[in-house]
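Complex 323.
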Amino acid sequence: MLETCTSCGRKFAPQYAYQVAMVPQPGGAPERRFFCHLECRRAALGEAAFSTRRARKLAILNQKGGTGKTTTAVNLAAGLAERGFETLLIDTDAQGNVGASLGVKGDRSLYHVLVEGQDAADVAVPVRGSLDVITADATLAVAEVWLARLDQDRDRILAKRMGSAHRRYQFILLDCGPSLSLLNQNALTYADEVLIPVSCDYLALVGVKQVLKTLKDIERHLGHSVPIAGVLPTFYDARIRLAKEAVATLRGHFKDRLLDPIRRSTRLAEAPSHRQTIFEYDNSSTGAEDYRRLVERIVGSDRPAASSHRMPSAQASEYPRAV
Ligand SMILES: Nc1ncnc2c1ncn2[C@@H]1O[C@H](COP(=O)(O)OP(=O)(O)O)[C@@H](O)[C@H]1O
Ligand SMILES: [Mg+2]
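Predicted structure with adenosine-5'-diphosphate bound:
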């Protein structure tokens, strides 16, 4: 549908999040405004339109595959967006499972942000109400090689490239691949917290050691510790004694940073093949219940102490949205 740019009067079809803004009206309900370019948006709303917020940035990471990282990233992001938080989900895994799970295929991906320096706001695709996504695909492998050849700051490029994106969102989630690659180091340098999903199946075998090793490896790579938003047991089955024991051991170690487990649920495994989040696919499933609890826990928690950032105020003014 064509809309009229509030600044220049041009007719255009809004495609990106920044092209729509709800602008507060004195004494009345906010009104929707459209902008064909970032410059038009800036001209009408000024820099303040981009500077009222500072996102919490969470990297969802575990160097092992199949621990529920993508499932957690997609459903936590969807749940936060459903709660009205402006949320950006960035896929930093060349497998591109985020796009596949949500049924989006952007014509551009994280490669274009990292290597070509394109504006994250242009590359982000609005996928649901308050949820935008930057997708990934096999070109990320090329980005990794490109990063490795850089002389300096090769683990800080993402933070540089994302520019002021954190001002446009309240949450930015990064779905990481199963490694401690340069891409993941970039994700960790950009993020201010890490959320670690741990499969209870796996835990039953190797225990808490593997989680500690992941954290140690992260710290070694970064040269400093990274605040933990939480350790999240996944694939939990209360009927299996070892799973219960594993969670108890984790609780002993991580105390209040251990989050309530996500139960094993066929509905969670099925949802991505329907290109749906768990809330869309089966809102009354145990999976939806567990991820809703996680959303509330993250929303209700402060940023970890090591971070000095404050949560944005609920009244923070308008925010650009695509239709
Ligand atoms: N709680 C769960 N119960 C059942 N299946 C799950 C659960 N969480 C994830 N899955 C499924 O397990 C597989 C691996 O999960 P995924 O989130 O892709 O892991 P990762 O991103 O860590 O590799 C996927 O097929 C996913 O649908
Ligand atoms: Mg994954």
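The two ends are 9 Å apart (CA to CA).
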